[in-house]
Every structure is written in C-alpha cells, then in structure tokens.
C-alpha cells in the first residue's frame, strides 16, 4: 500500500519550491500518495490539478502573535549576549506605540521578553505557544482532518509560519512524523524557527551548523542537508527561449545588451529607486561612449509601492519593466503568490541579460547559476535621513558572512565607481562568477540540481 504524504502549505511561500517544480512528479514516481494540505487561498486542485485537502480554518489563538513576537526578541537577545554580537539587535522590528491598543500590546510583549530572558525562559515561551494553540479551535479542526485521512508523514514547506503550529501539534499528538523545510538562507540567525518538528531539511552544511548553533534542542540526527528546489529550474534548459522570441515578447531591442536591475522590498532598501536612477544615468553615459545598453527592471514581487514610477518614466529610453509573474490575492507580503510561469521568465531574464545589479538580493545566486555577474550597491544615497534605514546594514547580517571572499559579488562602494565597474564587466575584464559559484555552493549545497530528489530520499528514510 502506498505511503500517504501530506505536503503542508501554511502559507504561499512554499508554492514555488514544492508545487511548481518537479517535486510532486518525483515523489509519485517513488510510489508515494501525495496530498497538498493547503492553508493558502491558492487552489492547488483547480490551478494545477493536484489532489489537495483545504484548511478552511485560518484561526490562530489571539495571544499567539504576541508570544511569538516575544519569543523572537528573547531569542535574539540571547544570541546577542551569547555571541557578543550587536548584529542580532538589527533583526528586530520596532515596536508600535500608535494608539492605546498597540501600546498595550507592546507593553505586554516587552513584559514577556523581560520575564523570559534566559534559555529556560525561551523554552517556557515555546511551551506556552504550544499550549495556546492546543486550545485554539484550529487544533481540533486539523486533528479531525488528520484522523479522517490518516497520512503517514507531514512535510511542512516552511518553518516560520504561525499558521502551521496547531496543525503540526495535532500531527505530533497523533504520532504522525513531521518534517520541516527551512525556507530561506537568512532565516536561522534571524530567530525565525517558529515550529518544532521531528526532522528538519536544510539547504547546506552551513545551515545545518546554524540550526545546531541556535537551537540546542535539535540534534544532528534530526537535520538533513538536501539543497533547495528554489534553484532547480535554472538547470532546466527546456525553459530557455530564443533571444529573438524573448525580445519580441517584451518589446526589447535586439541590438542592445541589457542589464537587470532586481528591485528590493521597501524594508530592505527604502531608497531603492535611487539606485535604479543611478544605473539609468550610468547606462545613458555609457551609451554616449559607444555602448548600446538597456535596463530590464524586475520589481520585487511583494513591493506594492509606486516609488519607482517617476524614475521609470524619466528614463524610459533605457528602462523596460518586466514584472515577475506573481498573483496578488491580498495586501500582505505573504499573500502575493508565485506562479509556475515566473520560473521560465526568471530563467530567461538571467539568460538574456549581461549581469544583475541590486541591494543584497539572493538573485546573485540565480544569475551565477547562469554564469552571469552581480553588482551589489553598497553606498548611501543623499536622500538618507533619520528614520530611513541605511542599506549598508544588510551586508552586516550573519548570512552575508557565508561569502568565501568579498569577490563573491562585485561591490559598488561609490556611485562614481559604477560606470567603471559596468564597463569592466561588459568588456569581460571583471567578474564575480567564479567566487560567486563557490558562495552558491556554501549556501545552497553541492547538488542544487537535484534538491527535490534529495528531499524525497529523506522522507523515505523517515518512513522506513
């Protein structure tokens, strides 16, 4: 009899990894009965024809967000003290003191943080969150679904969603093995380990070491290194469109060489539009010197702001916008969901541009997979003032310490240097690709082509 695996989506961030790749096809070829346990608004059955079980109850206990916020702060405080490193304080979002309701919430959270300023206190917060979620009606709802469908294993596609807590607790209490995928390369140091499962799947040896470093209750035997399906499409040459077909589709000039500007969210790079403007000015300058260049602007999928519009309008002679193919189904960042078509689009943007420029984005890995360089902007804009976050803070984060050398990306430390860096890259005199590929291996593991296959081997091992 086939083993039944529930692939659990507490939110939409895991769709691109586990619904739009070959993950399901590989699992079915191995003989597994796969059901998508779906807590998102995206209908996997209607859109993709996959078997799904919808979670209609999206309720969490009203105190869970407060205790979760306190837990994150308490963990970061412990890391700051333990490692004597001020970087952990920069991962905290500011408290909200606007209005009586927010003031009361903030005071309660700060009280919890003060009362749980130890390893024991952090563990108490985790137990309290579990206790709250077991009282939450969603726990009984999920438990009833699991009792009715009797899966042999739950594979949770992200470790950081509070929506997953009650569902995974129900599985645990029924004795169903649980496995969580650590979703992003920066999540572990940022105290984003919301759920506790029987096993964890991580991208790389680096990420495994980090989980053990920050979460002493996890043992090495519980962690499996597999890579991430996120980068698998970059090795699928069937996605490649011809240059002429791609350029015709997006009304690009085949006589031009294009540079990709990959936009950031407003939190990461609040003055991002001015870096796009700097690039546009530089491209215009290079075009007067014999280069024939254009810019493809690919917005951040979760950026709803109009902040780039004026720059795009002013420099429409060099900037072409090609928006990512994501679908907006709500106003929150995690309700903007990817589509399978965006894999092909991103593949071809990488394939048909000369390089990418951005502020500290993981798109460096998408592009080095195509042997294309990346420029990171690392200078302040004159518009920077009190209350606006300096982008230089990003490069101090723990996940950037994984770079094997600073040559893993081309850093632009001053806007006056941008033209020279672009010229050197376009002329074949400068590249970060060699060191960038080493960094890619450190972060994403040694076998990024076959992460889905590796994850199914882990599932098989857990079930055997």
Structure described in brief:
With 464 residues, the protein is of the alpha/beta class. It contains 17 helices and 15 strands. GO terms for molecular function: transferase activity.
Secondary structure: elements and pairs:
Blueprint: E1 4-9, H1 15-18, H2 23-29, E2 33-38, H3 44-48, E3 52-54, H4 64-83, H5 100-115, H6 119-135, H7 137-149, E4 153-156, H8 165-173, E5 178-181, E6 199-202, H9 205-214, E7 223-225, H10 243-249, E8 257-262, H11 272-287, E9 293-298, H12 309-314, E10 319-321, E11 326-328, E12 336-338, H13 341-351, E13 356-358, H14 363-368, E14 374-377, E15 410-412, H15 418-426, H16 433-444, H17 451-463
Helix pairs in contact: 4-5, 4-6, 7-8
What does this structure look like?
With 464 residues, the chain is α/β, with parallel strands linked by helices. It folds into 3 domains: 4-60 and 136-227 and 448-463, Rossmann fold; 64-130, no CATH class; 238-444, Glycogen Phosphorylase B (Rossmann fold), CATH 3.40.50.2000. It is built from 17 helices and 15 strands. α3 (44-48) links the parallel β2 (33-38) and β3. The longest helix is centred in the N-terminal third of the chain and has 20 residues, at 64-83. The mean pLDDT is 94.
What's the total helix number?
Answer: 17
Q: Please name the CATH topology of the largest domain.
A: Rossmann fold
- CATH homologous superfamily of the largest domain? Glycogen Phosphorylase B
What is the rounded Rg?
Answer: 23 Å
The geometry reads as globular
- Structural class by sheet pairing and helices: alpha/beta
Q: How far apart are the termini? A: 14 Å
Give the tally of structural domains.
Answer: 3
Unreliable runs? none
Main sheet properties: 7 strands, parallel
Tally of extended strands? 15
Helix content: 25-40%
Note the beta-strand portion: 5-15%
Q: What CATH architecture of the largest domain would you give?
A: 3-Layer(aba) Sandwich
Can you identify the CATH class of the largest domain?
Answer: Alpha Beta
Protein name: UDP-glycosyltransferase
Keywords: Transferase
GO molecular function, one term: transferase activity
